[in-house]
Design brief:
FAD/NAD(P)-binding domain, seven-stranded mixed β-sheet, 21 strands, 2 domains, binds flavin-adenine dinucleotide
Length: 417
């Protein structure tokens, strides 16, 4: 088995690691740089991003789009803001398409083309990819010694740890990066799945599986409104999904992990009107469609199956009854549900389904300009490993690129002297 030696070893061939390797080469092309990747190939997660289209950044990114230690990001994000990311990707051969929302995708519409462009640029730079090489321990020194699971030892003058977060284990997610950092004395905050689907009582939603409504959804903790989002909400067999649900999931996950166990509720605005307006609309419907069975009382106004479920919840009448049997109290209950159906959130899906990890290594032990560890000089950390996570919309990759660039440039500069 060959042992390997590099000027810079990057642990993790994901978004931030590949960017770090390219930035290091760009800063000092004479360096020998290797990317160690535990999977049989680099960039597996990148291929899955943006539903296979890769939402590679967002031109409107601001601190409000991030959670955790947002102040730590400032220097790296200023150095490599979204517009600079676009220019860099153009230089790699990826032409960006900017949507009205600010989300940026490759013109090709293929996440694979983002990975191809990064890998081609790495090959042109002479950066070595060593796959099926999982780092299991790190020993500091003028020459760091990285032990791989298969017994290999890799030596490097500088190490960039870009092992990513806990999400999507089949795409490389796991705890190994945190373990390596904890072994060096770094502290890691509790980690939770974020940008993930929400669970409710399955009985409440099972009949609605596959139905969507386009509108507002709120998240409440102990009856306090925390945040609202709009977009397509999807009912699933376990609860709720869709972009606005993912966006709200971080708040739900954090609240549900609290010791005092607050009540977390999703409020679904099925119709975009106030309760009183809906009540008037329903009263008119009751007179116009009085002979129609309750089964079809809401047909044409909302999805038919969703309408039947809400009618059953609001009034204790058989669905075969005529609409004329609805009392004013029934209409009030039904309009309240259509204006804001409240479902208790019982949990979130796990890291397998999540897009990002909330929580991670504490940033206080790192230099925000260089990403270098103060506890273990010579070690740089990037991307999702930090206690930083972004909303859905290209923000997490933006942080991966920015932190990767900062670490790669700093590690290479440190070897210039
Ligand atoms: C399904 C899905 C879709 C997403 N879509 C988007 C999107 O469109 N836009 C967006 O901004 N964000 C998106 N994200 C989030 C984004 O992909 C991540 O935040 C980002 O990839 C993190 O970059 P990273 O370099 O820190 O980690 P990763 O990209 O996860 O890379 C870490 C790499 O390190 C390797 N590794 C781990 N441990 C070791 C070890 N011990 N030794 C060697 N190698 C190791 C892993 O195999 C992996 O290849 C998505 C996430 C998922 C799961």
């Amino acid at each position: 088995m060959n042992d390997l030696s590099f000027d810079i070893a990057v642990i993790g061939g994901g978004a931030s690691g590949l960017m770090a390797a390219l930035a290091a080469h760009g800063t000092n092309p004479a360096l020998r740089i290797g990317v160690l990747e535990k999977l049989p190939r680099v960039g597996k997660k990148l291929m899955a991003t943006g539903n296979g289209r890769c939402n590679l950044t967002n031109v409107n990114a601001s601190p409000a789009d991030y959670h955790g230690d947002v102040a730590f990001m400032e220097s790296a994000m200023r150095r490599f803001p979204p517009l600079a990311v676009l220019e860099r990707f153009k230089a790699f051969g990826v032409y960006p398409l900017v949507e009205d929302s600010g989300r940026v995708y490759p013109m090709s519409g293929q996440a694979s083309s983002v990975l191809d462009a990064l890998r081609l640029s790495l090959a042109e730079a002479g950066v070595e990819e060593i796959c099926e090489c999982e780092a299991v321990s790190l020993e500091p020194g003028p020459f760091w010694r990285i032990r791989a699971k298969d017994g290999r030892t890799i030596c490097a003058r500088r190490v960039i740890l870009a092992a990513g977060g806990m999400t999507a284990p089949s795409l490389g997610g796991g705890a190994s990066g945190y373990r390596l950092l904890e072994a060096l004395g770094h502290r890691v905050t509790p980690r939770l799945p974020a940008l993930v689907q929400l669970k409710t009582d399955p009985v409440a939603v099972r009949a609605l599986k596959g139905i969507k409504y386009d509108g507002q959804i709120d998240i409440l903790v102990d009856n306090r409104l925390m945040r609202s989002e709009t977009g397509e909400v999807l009912f699933t067999e376990y609860g709720l999904s869709g972009p606005p649900v993912l966006q709200l999931s971080r708040i739900a996950a954090a609240a549900l992990s609290r010791r005092n166990k607050p009540v977390v509720t999703a409020r679904l605005h099925i119709l975009p009107f106030k309760g009183d307006d809906i009540r008037g609309m329903l009263a008119a419907r009751r007179s116009q469609l009085s002979a129609r069975s309750l089964e079809n009382f809401l047909t044409g106004l909302v999805n038919k199956r969703l309408g039947q479920t809400l009618v059953k919840l609001a009034c204790p009448l058989p669905l075969t009854a005529a609409s004329s049997a609805l009392t004013d109290a029934h209409l009030a209950a039904l309009s309240a549900l259509l204006a804001g159906w409240e479902l208790e959130i019982t949990g979130t899906q796990g890291f397998e389904q999540a897009q990002v990890t909330a929580g991670g290594v504490r940033t206080g032990d790192f230099d925000p300009d260089t990403m270098e560890s103060r506890r273990a000089p010579g070690l740089y950390v990037t991307g999702e490993l930090y206690d930083i996570d972004g909303d859905c919309g290209g923000f997490n990759l933006q942080w991966a690129w920015a932190s990767g660039l900062a670490a790669g440039e700093a590690a290479a500069k440190a070897l210039k002297n």
